[in-house]
Amino acid sequence: MDTLIITINDKRNYGNRLQNWALSRVLSRRGTCKTASTLLDGDLAKGRGTRARERAAYVRDLLRRGSAGHEAAVRHAAVERFDRRWGLNGPILTFRDGLSGRWRPDTIVIGSDQVWNAMWASPDDLSLGLGMNFDGPTVVSYAASVGTEDVPKWAVPAFREGIARMGAVSVREDRAADVLGGILGRPVAVVADPVALLTPEEWRSVFPGTVGGIEPFALEYFLGELSAEQRAAMDGSSRRTVCPIPVDTRTSVSA
Question: What pTM, to 2 d.p., does this model score?
Fold first, then answer.
């Protein structure tokens, strides 16, 4: 089975790249799997040389910003290396021109991550993320995310039409299932993020030497700041399970 993944190609986001690799790894067990390099039609019209010069200018700009810019440039370069190493730079896909090259998939898998976040997408972007410019292959979603509490009114018809064409649909959050289920008038499955589908041995093949020989511990990760009640609940859970939460694993990310 030949499969094409449509997801977010975010060179600033380690988690985005890891979920992409994990889903690609799982689907590769069943045949060839490639990840589309999605582009806006305006970007594609610029040509490969112009896009390369713009990327170089972006990196130079980051370096001029001092330490924060340097860290962002290092992150961008690391993600580029990761994508090249694991073959995540696949055929170019645009809404207007479709998929570049001669290779054609049997199945389109949309997800994971916020590929359906309509707050920052144009109508064409969202249609692309819903696989609406593919007529032949089977289209499904796996652990797709809308990324917000609700979807804007303009996007409702696109979701209704796009998801109705899919052979199967799943999301990674309960709220996304509620929102899309309300639009479709039927239940939507909630599934685990692709990173949870791989074994520790498979992850060690990517990051050798990072895990092993340590005592059990809990990793705490939240979006936004914890309330006093949440902090008390987490500390209580740690004491009950005799599983400490090291200070350097307490990660909070501003939403």
Answer: 0.78
